[in-house]
Amino acid sequence: MRRKRSTPLDDEHRSPENCSADLRARILSNAPYFRGLPAQAIEAVNSLFRSVDYPVGAALYHEGDSAEALFLVAHGRVKLLQHSASGNEVVLDLLGQGDPFGGLATLGQRRYPQTAVAQTACCVLTITTADFRHLIRTYPEVALSALDGVARDLEAAHDVIRSLSTLPVEARIAQVLIDLADRLGEGDESGILIQSPLSQQDLAAMVASTAATVSRVISNLRRHGYVETGRQWIRIRDREALVRLFEGAGEAG
To answer: What is the pLDDT, as a whole number, of residue 102?
Structure first.
């Protein structure tokens, strides 16, 4: 039996960083809703957020709960998932530092559309509906950014539906790997390293396939030298090859 390569994960990627004032300010100043606000405004925004640590596997909220808070990942990884009619988990996305998630009635969400689970130990920043409404009233640019965010989310949802209905599984896997590499990857001398405990079952759920099919496709990508895999990590060695695989399937469709 072939042994998996040892993981290059560092301890700093396994445990949450203390949500210090500097870290909070940096995360919020780069967040989609607050990017471009002056330092004084960021301080006011920071005062309305609270930081919460979650151990690995903890649920931050459940699908169907009242949408009462908006979250930002400060450190670690968060997994968004839904449950199918048969009770199986369907992974929708993996989130890293700075990514927003959750929902607020102010943004048109009455209930959370998915469950959020700490994929690693993590620290998140969270704000309530009432406090976010205060920010919208105080800073009109936050309201405009929120509307832009809703539009982006709708466009992304349409893109996912289109991909699942038109692309072959190899192209869907390539697309997900490109997206994860761009958002969560760290460049090194050998490519782009995605440091996350992403199982083949998780990846299968994200592309609406089976673990066996994902295993076959990943093995093929590995043989071609496009990716390298190990325990709890995957390295993209040839991003352009994955882009050609994804775009070529789209053009053929």
So the answer is: 87
